[in-house]
Amino acid sequence: MTITQIINKVKENNPNTDTKMLELAYEFAEEAHRGQKRRSGIPYIQHSLHTAFQLAQIKADINTVIAGILHDVPEDTDRTLADVKKEFGEDVYNLVKGITKLSKIKYRGVERYRESLRKMFLAMSKDLRVILIKFCDRLHNLRTLESLPEAKQQRIARETMEIYAPIAGLLGIWRLKWQMEDICFKYLYPDQYKKLEYKYEVEKKAERNQYSQKLKDILSQELDKHGIEYQLEDRFKHLYSIWQKMQNKDRQFDEIYDVFAIRVIVPTVADCYRTLGIIHATWKPKAGRIKDYIATPKPNGYRSLHTTVNGPENKAAEFQIRTREMHEESLYGIAAHWHYKQISGNQVKTQKQPAWVKEIIEIQRKAANTNEFISQLKLDVFGNRIFVFSPRGDVFDLPENSTPIDFAYLVHTEIGNKASGVMINNKIATLDTKLKNGDQVEIIIDKNRKGPNHDWLKFVTTNRAKDKIKHGEKVSRLDKLRRFIPGM
Ligand code: MN
Question: Would 368 be classed as within a structural domain?
Fold first, then answer.
């Protein structure tokens, strides 16, 4: 890896980027790390360059790439953070400082795990870019895991699976998540990995490629006919996610039919829907497999149209239709937002935090200790989300196992406090019913109701509902007291 490769990558993302500082950062880091070697024997600066390259690849902004080159300088050389500040300014300094703080945590046992998770989120809530650097640093460490003793390999792989990969998923940086997971899978379950790799890469590869080519040929003709500009890409599932699917659903490899999909990238949103129509006119869609993540994006912001059709030879074929911008976002997640911001000339700092980051900060603020923080985090953020609809068609996302009361408090505190019944999909249901994806939920309100019911605490899932119920109780107790003690 050379600095030129990184500069080229940065320019590829945005030709107007000034890369002077990047070159200076390289000279600075190269000199600082000179003579140091990685355990594998390669010069240490290679690790810094690989980290920076990966950052450029996920389209991080220039200062993040610079901080990527410098990330191990204060920790491992005699150059200090103050030197970094003097040479590269406040922004780069803050990023390097953030990453240096993070590197002080070591993973040892479950308590440390919780603590490192907490620190990761803390760093993230200050500046998300610190986490991007940490991910890219970790990815290169994983790629060079071979040279470490086995116990250390296992520890790093496990930590990555438990902490890094889920957070990368939350941030929507699928590209990094997949790469990390597949490497860890190989170290944690070597036998299963080898078996699956053989099946996927050797046995079925030719068959899959042939089929995908056939689909692309037919679709190209149709899209040409309708005058739609397009680009087609194969999307292969990564091995770990196939394996997970086999575990979860107890299926054989041959039964996992969505091991690949075809991505159709078109210029506009209107083209996305037109393309969906063209695909459905060509092959019969499978019921229940059409997903409109453009109208209803996933909580991490993912947008696309998905459909599975009955393709040639009566085999299932999945298509994912999206614009170029949606495509970049799906690969690079939060990093892509910055990329688009940069191109449109906006300041990086104006980047708004996604809703779940605010949610995490809120949980962090309230939790009494780390253990509580983690368990709530798992519940509210790491758990799967479902989408439900209000009668007006507004979309609300909730964690799995949420009930109408959770929904009511999400809509409005008063709706929660005065809830007396619920209609789910136009049928009367009980307030403790577990909501399902796509449910339409209408809360029936009793205007005379004084406050929440204590028993609701037994079945609600979200912390928001729990807090509101506890708070509402306090208020209504005070109300009662007031009635007995005039003037209180
Ligand atoms: Mn490093």
Answer: no
